[in-house]
Amino acid sequence: MDAEEKYSFWVDIAEYDMVTAEAMLKAGRYLYVVFMCQQSIEKMLKGLYILKKQKEPPRLHNLVRLFHKIYGNTDNELNPKHGLEFKNYLQLFAKLTAYYISERYPSYREKLSESINKKEATEILLKTKEAFLWLKSLEKS
Predict the structure, then answer these.
(1) Is residue 108 within 8 Å of residue 35, measured between CB atoms?
(2) Which of 5, 15, 6, 9 is nearest to 135 (CA)?
(3) Separation CA 29–CA 11 (nearest Å)
(4) What is the pTM of this model?
(5) Structural domain tally of the chain?
(6) What is the model's pLDDT at position 84?
(7) According to the model, what pLDDT value does residue 77 have?
(8) How many other C-beta atoms are found inside a 10 Å radius of the C-beta of residue 87?
């Protein structure tokens, strides 16, 4: 499988996770909405990593760090357009990473479940969809 085929595979499963996030919202499983949003963005980034770097992505779940591994760590390294857009999603990526890490520890799951209501889950899902489309647009750049 070449890099473009691998990228397509990652995009397919990222889209599947996004649909799953929507299903979890309808089911009232708000913590899992956020978890699936994180998974979707992580898979999209890993697909972009393969496409841009022509090698397998690192085993990394921090979305901010993963983005920087693809596009650079500083404003000087980032394409101005990427840097400006990334700043719009930096807070979302950090929030999704925090929920992902916390979700993996059962002692935090109950507390997190209480903190995420329908409104919060809906806002995160909408912002994630926006970020997803932006990341997808980067396949051409």
Answers:
(1) no
(2) 15
(3) 24
(4) 0.88
(5) 1
(6) 60
(7) 53
(8) 11
Total residues belonging to the chain: 141
| Residue 47, token pair as written in the block | 């697909």
Task: Report the candidate in 119, 129, 101 with the shortest Cα–Cα distance to residue 25.
Answer: 119
CATH number of the CATH domain containing 48: 1.20.120.330
From residue 129, give the alpha-carbon distance in Å to each of 10, 15, 111, 123.
16, 10, 25, 10
Residue 56 domain boundaries: 3-140
Radius of gyration of the chain (CA): 15
In single-letter form, the type of residue at position 69 comes to: K
d(CA 104, CA 42): 15
Contacts of residue 129, defined as CB under 8 A and 6 or more positions apart, other chains included, come to: 18
10-residue averages of pLDDT along the chain (141 residues):
95 98 96 95 97 94 93 61 72 89 59 78 97 91 75
CA distance 132 to 45: 9
Amino acid at 75: D
